[in-house]
Design brief:
Blueprint: H1 2-15, H2 17-20, E1 22-25, E2 31-41, E3 44-53, E4 58-73, E5 79-84, E6 99-108, E7 115-129
Antiparallel strand pairs: 1-7, 2-3, 3-6, 4-5, 4-7
């Protein structure tokens, strides 16, 4: 039984060498986000944007953390800020030199209109060197 377990472990290790070299980063020279739309849908703040993998030798495998600050003008002309993270993190796999458009839901939002918005975000992600999928 012990030999079978060791054999299966060895086979898995040989089949998945990239999993052992996964790294976590927040480097925007590797992965960049651009917000294209901010809106309120059913009382939730939603954001659409695109992640671009700028490297040709790195595959993004997971979005670990995403915090966004939205500075906007409400319907009374006041400038306000919203700070939050998505209610649910989407699957975010991006091959080398590719992009992926995402819709993110940031949960309940008090104002019903968002005008003249500007976003700033911080995020961390997992990537694998030399991997292509």
């Amino acid at each position: 039984m012990k030999r079978i377990f060791m054999l299966l472990t060895l086979i898995l290790a040989l089949m998945c060498p990239a999993l052992a070299s996964a790294e976590v980063s927040s480097d925007k020279m590797i992965l960049d986000w651009t917000t294209s739309k901010v809106w309120v849908n059913g009382g939730d703040l939603c954001v659409t944007g695109t992640f671009v993998n700028k490297r040709n030798d790195v595959a993004i495998t997971k979005l670990n953390e995403f915090i966004m600050r939205v500075t906007y003008t409400d319907k009374n002309g006041e400038r306000k800020q919203f700070l939050g993270r998505p209610v649910k993190f989407p699957i975010c796999k991006i091959p080398a030199k590719a992009s992926r458009k995402l819709n993110l839901n940031f949960g309940p939002f008090a104002d019903d209109s968002v005008n003249n918005w500007v976003t700033a975000q911080t995020y961390t992600f997992t990537y694998i060197n030399g991997a292509r999928f």
